[in-house]
Amino acid sequence: MNKITLIVLFISLAFSVKAQDVKQAEVGKVLDEWHRAAANADYEAYFARMTDRSIFIGTDATENWSVEAFKAFSKPYFDKGKAWNFEAVERNVFFNNENNLAWFDELLDTWMGICRGSGVLQKDMSGNWKIAHYVLSIAVPNEHVDALLAIKKEADSVLTKKLRSKPKM
C-alpha cells in the first residue's frame, strides 16, 4: 500500500469510529433521560421516550406490559412524585447495518441493588431514538442462586401450572 492509501484508510477508520461513538452517545442520552424522567417523576418525559407499541418487561414473571398497560401501572407512582431511580453504571450499545435499530444492555444502580436493563430502540420518522422494548432483571450473584430458587419455588410452580394451562400460540 502506498502512503496515500494508508492515509485515506486511517481517516475513514477514524470517521467510522467517531460516527459509532456519536450513535452510542445518542442512544445513551435517550436512556439516561428516560431513567432521569422516572427519578424526577416526569410522566410525560418518561413515556415520550417510548414508542406507541413499546413493551416493558419487569422483574416479576407476570410483568409483561404494553406501553398502555405500563402507563396505567406507573401513573400512580408518578402522580405521587416518586417513581424509581435507576442510574446506568455500565452500558453496551449495538446497531443494525441501517443504523435505525439499536440494542443494548446496561447495569443499573437501583433501590434493588444492581439490576440489568436490556432492550431495543428504533429511530422514528423524525430520526429520534425511541425505546421499543425494555427488560428489567434483578442481577443475582451466582453464589446466591440456590437461595433465590428456594424463595421463588412455590410461586414459580403456581405460575408455571397456570401458564401451561393456557392455549399455545
Q: Can you give a write-up of this model?
A:
- The chain is of the alpha+beta class and 169 residues long.
- The chain has one domain (3-141): Nuclear Transport Factor 2, Chain: A, CATH 3.10.450.50.
- It has helices spanning 3-39, 43-48, 67-79, 145-165; strands spanning 50-57, 64-66, 87-95, 101-110, 113-123, 129-138.
- The protein starts with a helix and ends with a helix.
In the CATH scheme, the class would be: Alpha Beta
Any idea what the shape is? Answer: globular
Give the number of DSSP strands.
6
Sheet of most strands: 6 strands, mixed
Question: Summarize this, please?
Answer:
The protein has 169 residues and is α+β, with helices and mostly antiparallel strands. It has helices at residues 3-39, 43-48, 67-79, 145-165; strands spanning 50-57, 64-66, 87-95, 101-110, 113-123, 129-138.
What topology does this entry show?
Blueprint: H1 3-39, H2 43-48, E1 50-57, E2 64-66, H3 67-79, E3 87-95, E4 101-110, E5 113-123, E6 129-138, H4 145-165
Parallel strand pairs: 1-6
Antiparallel strand pairs: 1-2, 3-4, 4-5, 5-6
Primary descriptors:
6 strands; 30% strand; Nuclear Transport Factor 2, Chain: A; alpha+beta; single chain; 46% helix; 6-stranded mixed β-sheet; 169 residues
